[in-house]
Design goal:
This protein has helices at residues 6-10, 23-35, 42-52, 66-76, 94-101, 120-126, 146-156, 207-217, 238-268, 296-305, 333-341, 353-364; strands spanning 59-63, 84-88, 105-109, 131-134, 159-163, 171-172, 175-176, 183-187, 200-204, 281-282, 288-291, 328-329, 342-345. The chain is globular, with a radius of gyration of 21 Å. α2 runs antiparallel to α9 (238-268). It has 2 domains: 23-245, 3-Layer(aba) Sandwich (Aspartate Aminotransferase, domain 2); 251-364, Aspartate Aminotransferase, domain 1 (Alpha-Beta Complex), CATH 3.90.1150. The strands form 3 sheets. The protein has an 8-stranded mixed β-sheet, with helices on both faces. Strands 7-6-10 form a 3-stranded antiparallel β-sheet, with no helix packed on it. 38% of the residues lie in helices and 14% in strands. By secondary structure, it is α/β, with parallel strands linked by helices. A hairpin with a 2-residue loop joins β6 (171-172) and β7 (175-176).
Length: 370
Amino acid sequence: MYEPDEGERNDGPIPPARPVIGEAEIAAAVRVLRSGQVVQGPEVAAFEDEFSGWVDGRHCVAVNSGTSALQLTLMALGLGPSDEVIVPSFSFAATANAVRLVGATPVFADIDPRTFCLDPASVEAAIGPRTAAIMPVHLYGHPAAMDRLEPIAARHGLALVEDACQAHGAALHGRPAGSFGAAGCFSFYPTKNMHALEGGMITTADSGMARTLRLLRNQGMERRYANEIVGANMRMTDVAAAIGRVQLARLPESTERRQANAKTLGCLLTAVPPPPVADGAWHVYHQYTVRVPGARDEAHRRLAARGIGSAVYYPTPIHRLAPYLGSCAGELPETERAAAEVLSLPIHPTLTERELVRIAEAVNDLGCLL
């Protein structure tokens, strides 16, 4: 059994993620609590307006989670039991759950082995007579191949919905995540590149769709007791929005830090290659994910013994989870391979130079496994 030496024990553990909640976030929350306007008020409106600047001026609709953003988008598009939506199986279950929650059927396509995002060729092969939409995921902060997926969706008359829950500030050929297709969906969970403690945002260029989304998040009404459609309660609180505004203002700095950390790790690591970045992609490194063929779980254990947190996203493809057994999925070899090999190393913006060196040294010392 591997044991760290005495010097390694003296260093504090490095977690795989480290949410930032500073005095500015606390002050923003307290300010809202003292104002008495705590739900769907001026802070939410301001957050929506400020986030619009990150998605080429699209309409922004704040909701209570990234999953709600996905679900409400599919509801606004009118998807239901007669429809299929093509999604990756290599993602968090929320991607497929949102499809099921509106009664539609997820159809799983394979991923590009370099980017871990949907493979356009696999997507095109999965299109059938019931296909209504394609939902690519910008996984780990790397944008999906939207320049190839957009023409496929247009050619087949399909809605294109971006799961951008891990991609705040990511871009492809200068075009930001959340500005492609019918809508983009973001999450503000605490471990994301920016957070609001919890929350989500939907972005769309369609003003009519934006209004429908605002109705859907608020029981189907714009004015109290004047319900126009059947809706839900998926509103964002003003406390969450105020924290989100602080985090959004800090996003350029934290993104730059993540990218600098990725560059440093790329220079220091010798045992594993760094994550590839596609041409024209602006990777924001929600995760720094490497491959460890044949020894991933042992590497994870040995790193933990040295105080280096790492994480596996995602060890079980969605189509192999209990709710989706027997689902619409063909051969997904790259999905299966990624699920068995990926390991995400710490990349968060609060890492110190010493911590980056420790991470690299620990990984490089696994060379005998690799």
